[in-house]
Structure formats: C-alpha cells, structure tokens
Write a structure and sequence with these properties.
This protein has an eleven-stranded mixed beta sheet, sandwiched between helices. A two-stranded antiparallel sheet has the order 1-2. The chain has a two-stranded antiparallel ribbon with strand order 8-9. It is 40% helix and 17% strand. It contains 14 helices and 17 strands. Bound molecules: NADP nicotinamide-adenine-dinucleotide phosphate.
Length: 418
C-alpha cells in the first residue's frame, strides 16, 4: 500500500493533548501514539502499557486514563505499508504531541536512514534527555551507585552529528583545504578527511533553557554545563558562554552561578536557587565516578552527551534499565536507550524496565507526577523481590529468572499493593 494513502484511525475514545502558549494542556484521557518497535519492541511496549495503565488507574481511580494509539514504524511497517516510517505516523505524533516508542532496527548498509534520527529531525526534537539513577538491587560496577542521580540534557541536532563531512581526497575536501590554505593561511594535511562542528547560539540556548526550566520545575539543585571549551573555544567554549547568558538573562532571579556560591560566607547556594556551574568534559567523566552526588542536571553538546550518558548509565546497571526522551519545544517522544535486540525477539525474555521508565518520564512530562512515582515504586518493589529478567538474574545473588510479561505482572501487583 503506498504510504501517502495510508490512513490511521485514532482510538474512538480519548482527546488530544493541546499546546497553549508553549505549555501542554492535557485532558484526563489523552490520546498517546505508541510505536511498538522491532525485535523485542512488542514485548517491552506491552509490558510498559500494562504497568503504565496500572499506575494511572491506581493513582487516579479511573478519573484519568491513556487512550493508546498504535502507529506503525520499523520492519513491520515496511512489510505492511511499504515504508519504515510512514508519513501518517510522523503526522500522528505531531498532532497528538506526546508519544512512546519501542526500539527500532536500523538495518546496516546503504539506503536506510536511521528512523530515530529521522523522527528527531522531522519533529525537531532537539533535546535528548536521559535520567540516570540507580534502582536498589540492580547490579552495578561501582561501590555507591545510589550516589548518582542525574538528568543529562544532550543537544541533538548539531555538533559533529550534523553530518557535514567529506572523505579524504574528495573534490569537496580538496576545495576546503585550498580555501584554508589560500584565504586563512591554515595548512592541513592533504590526506585528511574533513568534518565540520557547527554549534550555534540558538540551539545551545534552547537546550540550556530547557535544562534550567527542568531543574526549576523538578526541584533540582544545579545545572552543570559540560564542554570542551579549553580546546574548542568558539564551539564548545561558546556553548558554555551562551549557557551562562541564558541563565543570567532569562532566569536571573532563580539561579546563582558557582562563583556566586563560593563568594557566600556559608558557601551554600541561596535558598530556592538553582546553581549554574560548568565542568570540562574529560574532568566530568571522573567527577561522575568520584563525586557523583555533586551533580544533578547536566546540559551538554551532542558528542559529549552521547559518551557521558552511556558511561553514566553503565554505573547504574546499563541498557536494560536506561530510559530516554527526545524533547522539542512541546513535542516529546520517549523510548528505552537500548535497541531491538533481535536475537531475543518474541521470546518474552528481555528486561522491560527501560521502556517502563521511559513511560514514567512520559507521565512526568504530561504532569501526572503521582502516577510516575507510583510506577517507579512498582519497578523498585519488583526488583527488590528478586524475581527479575535474565540480565539482572545472572548478576544478582539469590535471584529467580522470569520473563518480560511475568516481570510486568509483578510490577502491576506491586502497584496495586497486592
Ligand atoms: P541492542 O538491541 O541494544 O542489544 C544489545 C545487547 O544489549 C543485547 O544483546 C542484550 O545483551 C542487551 N540488551 C538490550 N536490550 C535489553 C533489554 N531490554 N534487557 C536486557 N538486555 C538488553 O543493540 P544492537 O544489537 O547493537 O542493536 C540492534 C538494533 O537496534 C540495531 O538495528 C540498532 O540500530 C538498533 N538500535 C535502536 C535504538 C533505538 O531504537 N533507539 C537504539 C540502539 C540500537 P546480552 O545478549 O548480552 O544479554
């Protein structure tokens, strides 16, 4: 079936989330598009749906509910509709504003764009947000995983990920080298590949703005700007400057800089203010290992954020438990960080925690915080009970291995207090 003729039917019950003056207006029965995803996607999204519904139901006693709206993407969409990312799917997410997705396979080889990158670009989801915190009982390689509780805001549209690069010896690379030599008196080896690292004021500021707004809304103590400005002054260094500018110009009455705090006699942050500080990227890696409790929200450029978020996630248990969100000005798409793990497809085996915690992020995003707390409590209780999926069971002493759906069922029971 040609994509342009694919028509999707939203669920008969439920209402749209609206955007009013930049804020979300969420009905009690929001329609939420759901991409099940490839590989283990159907298993983990089914588990997420069940547990999210249970948390919402237990919290609001039937007054609120989510009207799920399944939309196609990935391999199953290719088979059924001849397109891995039908326009109807992106339109649905744009129209209904907030969505949840499972992992999507990106086939290796030419001709396929990454669906995740395509979704981020089409919907201008410029902030990749990754909360990293430890769930008691989850095996960790560090002594005190409980000391890490951060949210990383990673810029998702520019930096070396902008895709502006040319191969060694190509006409473009040669021309750039010539311009550098003749117009800027800069010599670069002839056998170099060339890549550009654009970092703009607009994109840096909107990312930092979102991170500070999040910190203020969620009672977080600090926002750390992570950069490599000592070396790359006009990209990474400028990111830092623009970050401080946003804090001063737009949140001046609710933020203080790290220097302000040092000047105070008690050396403590003024009551109710979020502290804005900055750390050079390489130092940040050791800071998160050695002094994790001193960090809270982190705002950083694309490549730094990519490395840092995986390293941080490893400290608290890794892929099976790490959720993420892709946020625009109002639109948001939540997902696990892991991929489609094709070898476990349809086996009811993998850990659904990352997808479920992505659901908790989604509930927080629409302002249903009480339900998010309940959902996370349910996950904690299920892990404490030590009947867990294979990835955790193989590292936890005395644990019993259960499948994806049984683990989801245990979470539902915990949520209902059974
Ligand atoms: P992956 O799907 O994340 O799986 C790699 C390994 O991580 C698995 O074999 C498994 O390790 C572990 N794992 C992943 N999810 C798990 C879960 N829920 N519970 C327990 N263990 C889990 O990475 P990949 O094999 O490199 O990628 C497969 C496909 O996914 C590729 O097409 C890739 O492009 C795509 N991908 C999509 C996204 C996304 O949609 N956001 C993200 C990353 C990758 P063990 O076998 O050792 O237990």
């Amino acid at each position: 079936m040609p994509t342009e003729r694919l028509k999707l039917e939203p669920p008969p019950e439920g209402h749209k989330i609206l955007i009013a003056q930049g804020a979300l207006r969420v009905p009690d029965d929001p329609i939420v598009p759901l991409i099940e995803g490839d590989g283990v996607g159907p298993d983990v999204t089914a588990a997420a749906r069940r547990t999210i519904d249970a948390a919402v139901d237990a919290t609001y006693a039937g007054r609120r509910r989510i009207a799920w709206y399944r939309v196609p993407a990935g391999e199953s969409a290719l088979i059924r509709h001849g397109d891995m990312l039908p326009d109807a799917t992106t339109h649905a997410i744009r129209e209904y504003v907030v969505a949840l997705k499972g992992p999507l396979t990106t086939p290796v080889g030419g001709g396929f764009r990454s669906l995740n990158v395509a979704l981020r670009q089409t919907l201008d989801l410029f902030a990749n947000v990754r909360p990293v915190y430890w769930l008691p009982g989850v095996p960790s390689p560090v002594l005190h995983p409980e000391r890490l509780d951060i949210v990383i805001f990673r810029e998702a549209t520019e930096d070396v990920y902008a895709g502006i690069e040319w191969a060694k010896g190509s006409d473009e690379a040669r021309r750039i080298l010539e311009i550098l030599r003749t117009e800027f008196n800069v010599r670069v080896r002839e056998d170099s590949g060339i890549g550009l690292k654009p970092i703009s004021e607009f994109c840096s500021k909107r990312l930092v703005r979102k991170a500070i707004a999040y910190a203020l809304a969620h009672g977080r103590r600090s926002v750390t700007l992570v950069h490599k400005g000592n070396i790359m002054k006009f990209t990474e260094g400028a990111f830092r400057e623009w970050g401080y500018e946003v804090a001063r110009d737009e949140f001046g009455d609710r933020t203080a800089t790290g220097e302000d705090v040092q000047r105070r006699p008690d050396g403590r942050a003024p009551e109710g203010k979020v502290v804005i500080k900055d750390v050079i990227a390489d130092n940040m890696f050791q800071q998160l290992l050695l002094r994790p409790a001193e960090y809270d929200v982190i705002a950083t450029s694309n490549l730094n954020g990519d490395y840092l978020s995986d390293a941080a996630a490893a400290q608290v248990g890794g892929l099976g438990v790490a959720p993420g969100g892709n946020l625009g000005d109002a639109h948001a798409l939540f997902e696990p960080i892991h991929g489609s793990a094709p070898k476990y497809a349809g086996m009811d085996k993998v850990n659904p925690t990352a997808e479920i915690l992505a659901g908790a992020m989604m509930l927080e995003h629409i302002g249903w915080d009480e339900a998010a707390i309940r959902l996370k409590e349910g996950v904690r209780a299920a892990i404490r009970a030590k009947a867990v999926t294979y990835d955790l069971a193989r590292q936890m002493a005395g644990a019993t291995e259960i499948g994806t759906s049984a683990f989801a069922e245990a979470i539902v029971r915990a949520i209902r207090g059974a």
